Amino acid sequence: MYIIDEENKEYRFGDSGPKYLMKGPRMNFALVQFQANQDFKAHYHNIMEENFYIIEGEIDIIVDGKINHLTKGQFIHIEPGEIHYCVNNSNASVKMVSTLAPYQQLDKIEIEDYQY
């Protein structure tokens, strides 16, 4: 058992991206934040499934070319192999929870020049 204080962790890109509260051994748990008009490169996972739960704001999460506009209180589940791309097309920040399981250290395959 352990306890993590969010304030002791940092977002990957300063004020945006994932902030991992736990990485492995069986799953990842992160808070993810994007400022207005920021995005996160399209990618997929071979083994891990990924979930997002929107805490505040709104975001477009494109899964295999389908635009899913999500708002506070909504949840999306993404299966292994599904290409997903997150973009905040709003004028405000978005904050969400992300989980990935089962944990794999190297399971993210980035997509160059993703078009949807």
Automatic annotation (TrEMBL):
Annotated InterPro entries: Cupin_2, Flavonoid_dioxygenase-like, RmlC-like_jellyroll, RmlC_Cupin_sf
Listed Pfam families: Cupin_2 (PF07883)
SUPFAM superfamilies in the record: RmlC-like cupins
Residues annotated as domain Cupin type-2: 31-98
Protein name per the record: Cupin domain-containing protein
